[in-house]
């Protein structure tokens, strides 16, 4: 497979940081493909290990399901590198890459061999004694062992937690970038004042966040909650806020009591609402999430248990009823509603955006997610310009405005004031950034095709939406539906997954050669046509050969969505 251009950049920056520091951390949110990048960096380190040094890499996981998930993607990225497992059922160091369960390794520290690299998935857990014990045992047999970490949510608990392991951040892919590239849906942020904004802005800040008991005194009032439910249900036409009644919704509250009262207000309005929080048992939480996933719960109200490690892609409304002292916390909360939906998992579900109703002033404090989008070339390629965090002294990318290691926030030149309303985002031109050349086959911008040696992908405008369709010799499938940017990202990822470095990427010279006489003849084009290239003809013929199947898929999906 191929990495997306942005993933390739993150990989190169991580390798450069490992060369320089011997450790580094990559921050990559949901939708970035962090397991793919983790695998690419690890594989490169194994392949380039010195002949007289260790050539094994240990990949740490803390949950059983991550072992299976990560090993499958590692094999996809590195088909020629052997791997083995070290967990409760298999304790093998035979592979060049070893997928190890932290819990099992801590009971077998004396068996750790010399390693070139330790890769840590969910890096924010490195502060735990179990991880530190593994690092020390590995350094005992190879003091030069490198440590590479990937996480979407750096530790914020003691503000300097993971700084003890990492001296720098190689790169940070922001949610804003992924929105702008179509890999996450766009948020439509509404900052709404129900008469308590001035009070919330006076809430005191404690060590790790605002005082939630004080927030609850302001927000947990019937007159406030009733207004919130009404705005969610009816919308606000004069501000272009639609009703969110048909949107799967997640609500973030300040305290458990606040969550219970909010859920009851939704129930009183005839809405199926339930509460989930950390004091519930694991089985009870699992049942609630399952019911929400099946649509039995319309509104899921929570107290900071849905910020990490959970996603329900059909969620398309997020309500913030509490402020957040860190921008990263706000990003985590809003991120629950930004995943795109896959038609295989959610047939008939169409999601093109996420409504964010911010009653808690987070957007006024930190600015909107859209501010994270950076379109200059320094993010796109090459070495990341760095700066030193004045709080923890870590090297971090110069574009970062909040230190991923300690939470220090740099002063922004201009704070957001007043209500944000609808924010129109700038779109990154994926056609320019794609590994592949996309052809406008009808010359009307309503059908685009790109082709590799093993797969093809197409984007088709139908009934007000863009559909992405992909195919190989053995399948033709619907990849997803949404706006043009989302469809393009889905098609591009499909090609990257099925093609390798020898594929028909757009830099290949033969793509610009004139179409062959046979191609022109089959397409019914004149023999003197010099404008049509061999690659353009290949895409046009690919569409013609698969036209019937494409039409059936696109029209069938539209019918499901309408049903």
CATH H level, superfamily name of the largest domain: P-loop containing nucleotide triphosphate hydrolases
Beta-strand residue fraction: 15-25%
Radius of gyration over all CA atoms, rounded: 25 Å
Query: What are the segments in which pLDDT stays under 50 over at least 5 consecutive residues?
Result: 373-380, 414-428
CATH architecture of the largest domain: 3-Layer(aba) Sandwich
Based on CA inertia axes, which overall geometry fits? globular
Q: Predict the CATH topology of the largest domain.
A: Rossmann fold
Number of helices: 17
The total count of strands amounts to 20
List strands and helices in order, with pairings.
Blueprint: H1 5-21, E1 23-27, H2 34-47, E2 57-61, H3 64-77, E3 83-86, E4 97-101, H4 102-105, E5 117-121, H5 129-141, E6 146-151, E7 169-172, H6 175-180, E8 186-191, H7 197-200, H8 212-219, H9 222-234, E9 248-252, H10 256-268, E10 273-276, H11 282-293, E11 299-302, E12 315-320, H12 327-335, E13 353-358, H13 362-366, E14 386-388, E15 395-397, H14 430-433, E16 439-440, E17 447-451, E18 456-462, E19 465-471, E20 476-482, H15 484-498, H16 517-523, H17 534-562
């Amino acid at each position: 497979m191929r990495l997306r251009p942005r993933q390739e950049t993150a990989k190169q920056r991580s390798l450069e940081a490992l060369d320089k520091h011997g450790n580094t951390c990559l921050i990559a949110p949901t939708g970035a493909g962090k397991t793919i990048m983790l695998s690419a960096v690890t594989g490169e380190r194994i392949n380039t290990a010195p002949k007289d040094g260790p050539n094994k890499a240990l990949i740490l996981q803390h949950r059983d399901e991550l072992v299976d998930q990560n090993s499958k993607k590692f094999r996809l990225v590195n088909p020629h590198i052997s791997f083995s497992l070290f967990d409760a059922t298999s304790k093998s160091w035979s592979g060049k890459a070893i997928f190890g369960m932290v819990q099992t390794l801590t009971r077998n520290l004396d068996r750790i061999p010399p390693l070139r690299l330790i890769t840590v998935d969910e890096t924010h857990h490195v502060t735990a004694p179990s991880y530190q014990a593994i690092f020390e045992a590995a350094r005992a047999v190879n003091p030069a062992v490198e440590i590479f970490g990937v996480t979407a949510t750096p530790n914020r608990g003691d503000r300097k937690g993971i700084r003890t392991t990492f001296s720098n951040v190689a790169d940070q892919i922001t949610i804003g970038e992924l929105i702008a590239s179509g890999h996450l849906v766009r948020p439509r942020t509404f900052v709404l004042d129900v008469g308590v904004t001035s009070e919330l802005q006076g809430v005191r800040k404690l060590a790790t966040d605002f005082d939630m008991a004080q927030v609850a005194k302001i927000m947990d009032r019937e007159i406030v909650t009733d207004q919130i439910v009404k705005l969610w249900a009816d919308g606000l036409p004069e501000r272009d806020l639609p009703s969110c009644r048909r949107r799967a919704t997640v609500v973030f509250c300040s305290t458990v009591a606040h969550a219970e009262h909010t859920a009851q207000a939704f129930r009183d309005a005839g809405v199926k609402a339930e509460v989930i929080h950390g004091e519930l048992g694991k089985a009870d939480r699992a049942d609630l999430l399952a019911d929400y996933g099946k649509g039995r719960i319309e509104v899921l109200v929570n107290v900071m248990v849905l910020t990490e490690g959970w996603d329900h892609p059909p969620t398309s409304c997020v309500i913030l009823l509490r402020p957040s002292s860190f921008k990263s916390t706000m990003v985590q909360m809003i991120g629950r509603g930004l995943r795109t939906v896959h038609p295989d998992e959610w047939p008939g579900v169409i999601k093109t955006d996420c409504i964010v109703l911010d009653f808690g002033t987070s957007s006024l404090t930190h600015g909107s997610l859209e501010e994270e989008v950076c379109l200059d070339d320094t993010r796109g390629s090459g070495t990341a310009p760095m700066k030193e965090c004045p709080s923890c002294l870590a090297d971090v990318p110069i574009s970062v405005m909040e230190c991923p290691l300690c939470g220090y926030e740099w002063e922004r030149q201009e704070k957001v004031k007043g209500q944000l309303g609808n924010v129109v985002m700038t779109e990154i031109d994926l056609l320019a950034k794609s590994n592949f050349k996309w052809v406008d086959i009808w010359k009307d911008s309503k059908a685009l095709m790109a082709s590799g040696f093993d797969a093809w992908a197409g984007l088709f405008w139908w009934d007000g939406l863009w559909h992405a369709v992909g195919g190989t010799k053995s399948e033709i499938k619907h990849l997803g539906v949404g706006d043009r940017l989302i469809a393009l990202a889905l098609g591009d990822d499909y090609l990257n997954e099925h093609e390798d470095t020898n594929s028909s990427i757009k830099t290949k010279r033969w793509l610009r050669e004139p179409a062959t006489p046979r191609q022109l003849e089959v397409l019914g084009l004149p023999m003197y046509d010099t404008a049509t290239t061999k690659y353009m003809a290949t895409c046009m013929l690919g569409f013609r050969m698969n036209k019937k199947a494409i039409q059936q898929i696109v029209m069938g999906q539209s019918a499901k969505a309408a049903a």
